[in-house]
Design a protein that fits this description.
disordered N terminus; cell membrane; transport
Length: 543
């Protein structure tokens, strides 16, 4: 009797919260409080928007009507930009694929190789691409080569990590069967691993292509050719009609690339899912037959190879110039070492803290803006399919606007300083954070929602008790990822006067104080690593 009562009492008692989980939520609350405090310190309030209203009207008058360049010039700029972006993405894939094999736990030949590859991925991800562009500009000069190398190497940080994650998630059955036949390590990779991860590899490359297209605008401000350089030139000349017209072209290109990549990703997933368990009838053939599906795949592969070759030609990549420029690597690398503060270490610390405050404030404001947008973009939360599709398209539209263009607009409206950078990142967060929130809501278990709905609960009751609690841990991870992105972006937006340590970075490069550039790089690198470590710990505690 007493045993049954004790069991009942135990069963009816809620488990005590874990210390780590409680500490994680306290850290999240502290970060939120810091973000709110940053908004107050940066003086972002209603008065700021009221005071900037007249400037916004004046800017609209100077921006409209848009002044597009001649069609031939516009097509040349767009083609050059796409060629650089495609070449950079291909470079990142070529480097990331073998690096991911070494970084994945199930394919790494030795623990040392795995840790070394993981370290390389983290390091290149933490170094801002504009810093890489400044370094490569000293080695290779102005031109497409600088942009391809800067974007390509920085992309390895994201592409390599996602490739390694995809390899670690494969089904080990096919690989084990191939190993049982006596196949070597390389044969196992080609026959047992590559076919499983190829769709994920292609999808990741397409996603990175979309990101690099927006990054190309930023690199234009440090001399990389294409639409970004034309936009930078127009803004420096205060020709807002031409600059915003070119920015509109970038927006259209970003939307088209995102829609195209989304279509290809869905086709890949559908293709891998169809007839997965159906036997292949080959008769007496040893090689697979030329079915319609195989012909399509071969055609896609040939088309991809053609696009890559045309991009390398369109970007005017010169292997001879690349090899000859490598002779000056040692001499130019010496310019960046040792690090030097130029007698302004206190100012650098203050500007770094300002950059962190910009990122924190933008993350809080962006979360407030993105949460309702992301919820309404999720098909299981939107009141009807039309609303869901409309908000999905709105998210795509916002994602297509480069943050640097937003920063220039807000600099003109609110003036130079941190307010412009914070507002630009806040608006940009709607695109990334809104998409992540919508995806998380659509991936939850529908069981609790159906159970609560069966009790007669309304739409809002189902959302707050059945939907939101399941997605909350994912939301925290997304917010930390957005904070990580915002810290790097806030550094870069300083290039156009949007506050923070980015202005010191550009100034150091312009006056050839490369030791100062190295010091700023180390400071930003350390900050990004701290945020990534904190995000990793929080995700572990909340999972």
């Amino acid at each position: 009797m007493s045993a049954s009562i004790a069991t009942a009492d135990t069963a009816g008692t809620l488990a005590a919260p874990r210390i780590g989980n409680t500490a994680a939520w306290l850290v999240v609350a502290a970060l939120t409080a810091l973000g709110c405090r940053a908004i107050v310190d940066l003086r972002i309030n209603i008065a700021t928007f009221v005071d900037s209203g007249r400037n916004a009207v004046d800017f609209a008058g100077r921006m409209l009507p848009l002044d597009f360049p001649p069609a031939a010039e516009l097509l040349e700029l767009a083609a050059q930009t796409l060629a650089i972006v495609v070449s950079a993405t291909v470079l990142s894939v070529v480097i990331s694929a073998p690096l991911a094999i070494l970084a994945a736990a199930n394919t790494a030949p030795a623990p040392g190789a795995r840790y070394g590859a993981r370290t390389v991925i983290v390091v290149v991800r933490a170094i801002p691409d504009v810093v890489m562009a400044i370094v490569f500009m000293r080695i290779f000069g102005l031109g497409a080569m600088t942009g391809v190398l800067a974007m390509g190497l920085h992309s390895v940080g994201m592409v390599g990590k996602l490739y390694a994650d995809a390899i670690e998630q494969i089904d080990e059955g096919p690989r084990s069967a191939i190993r049982a036949t006596g196949a070597g390590w390389g044969q196992q990779l080609i026959s047992g691993v590559l076919p499983q991860v190829l769709p994920a590899f292609v999808a990741t490359a397409l996603h990175r292509l979309d990101i690099n297209l927006r990054i190309s605008v930023l690199l234009g401000f440090v001399g990389v050719n294409g639409l970004g350089f034309a936009i930078a030139t127009a803004f420096k000349q205060l020709d807002y009609r031409r600059g915003m017209a070119l920015a509109a072209v970038v927006l259209v290109l970003c939307i088209l690339v995102e829609l195209l990549s989304g279509t290809i990703r869905r086709a890949l997933l559908r293709d891998t899912g169809e007839k997965a368990g159906a036997p292949l009838r080959t008769g007496d053939r040893i090689s697979p037959p030329w079915t319609r599906r195989r012909l399509c795949r071969t055609g896609y592969a040939a088309l991809t190879a053609l696009v890559v070759l045309m991009s390398a030609w369109g970007a005017d990549l010169d292997p001879v110039h690349f090899v000859s420029s490598l002779r000056g690597v040692g001499r130019n690398a010496g310019l960046f070492w040792p690090p030097d503060t130029a007698g302004m270490f206190g100012q650098l610390l203050g500007d770094l803290w300002l950059t962190v405050k910009i990122a924190l404030g933008a993350t809080v404001i962006g979360a407030v803006l993105a949460l309702p947008v992301g919820c309404l973009a999720a098909h299981n939360v939107a009141p009807n399919p039309l609303v869901g599709k409309a908000f999905r398209m709105f998210v795509v539209l916002i994602r297509g606007i480069p943050e640097l263009v937003l920063a220039v607009v807000f600099v003109v409206i609110t003036g130079l300083g941190a307010v412009a950078g914070t507002l630009a990142l806040s608006v940009g967060a709607i695109g990334l954070l809104g998409k992540l929130i919508a995806d998380s809501l659509e991936e939850i278990d529908p069981g609790p929602e159906q159970a609560i709905r069966a009790t007669g609960a309304g739409r809002w009751q189902v959302f707050f008790t059945g939907t939101l609690p399941q997605a909350a841990p994912s939301f925290v991870g997304h917010l930390l990822y957005q904070l990580d992105v915002n810290i790097r972006s806030a550094t870069l937006l300083g290039v156009v006067g949007a506050g923070g340590i980015g202005f010191d970075l550009l100034s150091g490069a312009q006056i050839l104080e490369f030791g100062l550039v190295t010091t700023i790089l180390i400071m930003v690198f350390a900050t990004v690593l701290v945020v990534e470590a904190l995000a990793l710990w929080l995700r572990h505690q909340l999972s």
